[in-house]
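Q: Here's a chain of 353 amino acids. Please give me its 3D structure as tokens.
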Amino acid sequence: MTTLLQRLGVDLPIIQAPMAGTSTPRMAAAVTNAGALGSIAVGAVTAEAGREAIAAVRALTPGPFNVNVFCHRPAVANQDREQAWLAALRPVFRRFDAEPPTDLGEIYTSFAADPAMLEVLAEARPAVASFHFGLPPAVAIARLRSAGIVLLSTATNLQEAEAAVAAGVDGIVAQGYEAGGHRGVFDPQAPDAQQGVMALTRLLVSRIDRPVIAAGGIMDGAGVAAALALGAEAAQLGTAFIACPESSADPYHRAALFSPSAAATEMTALISGRRARCLANSFTRLKDAELKGASPPDYPIAYDAGKALAAAAKAKGDGGYGAQWAGQGAPLAREMPAADLVALLARELAAAR
């Protein structure tokens, strides 16, 4: 049977996850050229920057790649909560001889409310576009489908997967609770079933009529083989690529990935305002100190403060306040060029099957 990726001309059942702030055009191109599917993330940039990123990948590979967008509900500003958050963070900023911002803003525009980014994707026609945090309006999905773009959507439970199928996507990325970075839940206020990748993948394979891509904690070829044995058509790996030289992870993030922190990931909403799996660091420890009991502003307004604090700390040589996203498989990370990692994953997969 020909899989979705094979129809796209991708030889290996491996997708490099589109990690905003970490994946780069150079990484995506290297992965695609090595026979897997490379990805970039444009959810945290402007439409023009998204256009430039797509062009940069195209300059490096003739092959297919994935462009990921964020479909979160636009933030609701609440000045009282935002000012309370800044007040709680002020003592932390002062450790680094800095002051927090006077005001916070919605630093990212949701694809659900960004017609300019829709135009960029419809005109650029990447082989694949993927949605995180939910689904865009039906008119946007119809526009992308009419452009011949294969559409993927993250789902963290069966109901989200069923909604994505009903909306017309071509495949589902089953994001297990082990995964690094932001949870792709459609409604961050709803209870999270916290299903692991094994249970979620098997459930979706048995209940929906779309290809399933397993994501979460998968770091090597044996993990890819396990996902395929569960019925997934491919596996998506993110943390596995953080240490590659093509990644834009800073030296502090790379060092933490190979430190004892790798075995101590945790879910936190403190950094961005939305729950995400991070290496335990100085920022996550604020939950027991200055931020104990505090309620962060909406995503991505809270991220405005988080990024400012990380920058203030780095200016003083402290990299422990960054968004050091990583999945539970982090201790299995390996440092090598992205193409070499894809080749190694392929060999490990062949040996495990």
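Q: Can you summarize the key feature?
A: The chain has a mean pLDDT of 97.
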